[in-house]
Amino acid sequence: MKISKSIKTFNILLDNSTSIYTPGSLLTGQVVLDLLKPKSFRALKLRFKGKCKVRWTGNSSGSGKNTQTEGYTGREQYFDNELLLYEKKSGSEELSTGLHNFRFNFQLLHNIPSSFEHNNGFVRYTITAIIDRPWKTNYEITTVFRVETSLRVDSSSLLQGIEDEISENLCCKIVPCIRSREIELRFRLPKSGYICGDYIKATIDIGTCQVKKLKLMLEQTLLFHSRKLHKKKCITSIITETIKEGPFAEDIKEIIELRVPIVPGSRLEYCNLIDIDYKLIFYAEVSNCNYSIKRKYDIFIGSGSSALLSQQQVINYPPNLASTIVPSAPNCDSNLILSPPLPLVHEQKPILHNLNLSSSCSNTSLNPVPQPMCNIGFIYPYPSAPVDPTLESCKN
Hints:
The chain has 396 residues and is an all-beta fold. Helices cover 1% and strands 48% of the residues. A hairpin with a 6-residue loop joins strand 8 (121-132) and strand 9 (139-147). The chain starts with 6 loop residues before the first strand and ends in a 42-residue tail after the last strand. The relative contact order is 0.22.
């Protein structure tokens, strides 16, 4: 990207075209700098940052111009490291005209959460290239990369199924019945752990009742934590559902399926400000009686799916996350298309500096490097449940 009359291209290129990485993996790439004439810079640096931020507003007080709305925020930092790619050795030193490629690599920590985007909070990872110009405004360009934790669902607890015997005595809610009526159902799931793209297959054994409708719903609960007064904000939404119409006779077995969409995994491990949980809701409407049965079951959503391996979706960053330029020179041309990188011209030995690493994320006990996760084409940001201001929030 052209940012001044003397700089034709200034960009960050990652070797991984998907920009998706697992915790503990090695991030590699290059900074491309194409000069139209010799230039003198003090230094060229890279800054790697990983952070979480939550923010929402509370109740308003007062009226008119005196109205005050209380805001709640929380911040958490996972790493903030600086890498020196080039440093000026003498006062007269200049970078020559032409293409300069500066290779870099950065080792990600193991104990960092997956990327996450929502109106009320995010977990975000960025790389910023900085051209340090003495007594002038620096040139900066920022790119975003994703971190995806591989959440396994093959543990013994998640492979255990769910079985619920439902037996209730009821009568019509509109007109009192002369005698009560008994409902008997059995709800069964083969397991409680699923990955994106899986089908949740529930088996319903209908006993001594007639059912006219069956429904499965996947409920997502997002819980945001504020550092201020330890407040919390809870958003619960139905992400997807499936309905099977009846009527269904007595003493039969029915199977209803619900596919897990592409959503963030459960828990958001290593993040202390955002929690993610999922529940499966089972709903049955009884025939000839204004009565329904509703049950909720805890399930775990992991990551990765063989059903999605062939899907290569485009990662669409929000407008505020696209590569940004902070130039001081006029006549910028942002329409120039970056040409393919040429063979290495100049390569500097990088120097890594830890600027401000959170003690909670210190890399004192590292797990073995996980195997790279399959690129299943997550959309950025996740299509998590839409934010609806009418949704009920958890009490503080």
